[in-house]
Amino acid sequence: MTAPSTSPAPVDAAPRSALASGAPAGGAVLEERVVDGAPTAVHTFGDPDAPPLLALHGLRGSHHGLAPLATRLGGLRVVVPDLPGFGASPPFRDRAHDVAGYARWAGALLRDLGPGTALLGHSFGSIVATALSAVTAPRALVLVNPIAEPASSAGGITGAGTRATALLHEGAARLGLAGVLRHRLLADAATASMTTTTDPALRRWIAAEHREHFGTFAGIGSLMEAFRAAGAGSARPWAPLVTAPVLLLAGGRDRVAPAAGQHALAAAFPDARLVVLPRTGHLVHYEAPAWAAREIAGFLGR
C-alpha cells in the first residue's frame, strides 16, 4: 500500500450551468437502458470512444452530483447512472435496495461496458463499488469520500447527527410522510452538515443543488432500504478481497466519513493510495472537482 498523503490544493467550484434542471447534467448523453432487468437512466460524459469509467453516486443523490467531476475527466468516457430508486431511474422490482442489490445491478452494467472499465463510487456508492470490486475486478477502483466505518457506530457530533437523521427518516417512513423527507429544510440541513467551504457563492450553489435534487427519490420504501443499508454498511469488509489498484480521495474535515478512519480503510486494501484534501468535507465532488479530477487522471494514467 502506498503511504497516505495530504494535498494543499484549493477547492474549486463548478458552474451552475453544469447541472441543468430537468436535463442530463453537463451536456451528458442520456440513454434509457435495462440493466439486469432494471430500467435505468444512464448519463454518459466525454468521448464515447474513450476508456470507460463507471461512476456510482451516493445516497439521495443522482447523476447531477457527479457531473462537476465527470465533466473535468477529459480523456475518459464517464458513465453515471441514476441508481434505481433515485433520480430518473425507477426502483427495483425484484430485489432490495441494499448493497447486494445495487452491486448485482452495477456488476451487470460494468460487464456491459466491457473489459478495462474503471469503477468509481462516492459515499454510499463507495460501499457498492467496493463490494462489487471484491467479486468482479475492475481495471481500477476510485473511492471519493469513502465510508470507512458504519455511520451507526460513529461517536460525538457525527454520531448524534446520524442518529437524529435516522429518527427523522424512520418516523416519516412510519407515517408515510414523503413530503417531510423532500422538504427543503432537510436539504438545507444536509448542506450545512456536509459543506465546509467558506466561499458564499459556492455554498449557495451547493444549497441550490441539494434543494433541487435531494428529494428525487422514487418512494419511501426504496429510500428507506437504501438509507438503512448506507447507515449500517462500510467499504471495510470487502477491502481485503479487492485485487484492483485503489485510489481513495478523502476530505480532512469530512463529518460523514471522518479522515481518521480513512487510514485504516486504505490499509485494508492490498494495493491502495490515500490522498486527503485537508479543508474539504464530504462533498469533494462539489467543492473540489478539478482537484479530484487531476488525482483520478494521474491515477488512471490519462
UniProtKB/TrEMBL annotation:
InterPro entries associated with the record: AB_hydrolase_1, AB_hydrolase_fold, AB_hydrolase_sf, Epox_hydrolase-like
Stated name of the protein: Pimeloyl-ACP methyl ester carboxylesterase
Annotated TM spans: none
Highest taxon of the lineage: Bacteria
Classification via Gene3D superfamilies: alpha/beta hydrolase (3.40.50.1820)
Pfam families: Abhydrolase_6
Region: Disordered, residue numbers: 1-22
Comp. bias (Low complexity): 13-22
All residue ranges annotated as the AB hydrolase-1 domain in the record: 54-294
Record PANTHER family: HYDROLASE, PUTATIVE (AFU_ORTHOLOGUE AFUA_2G14860)-RELATED, MONOACYLGLYCEROL LIPASE
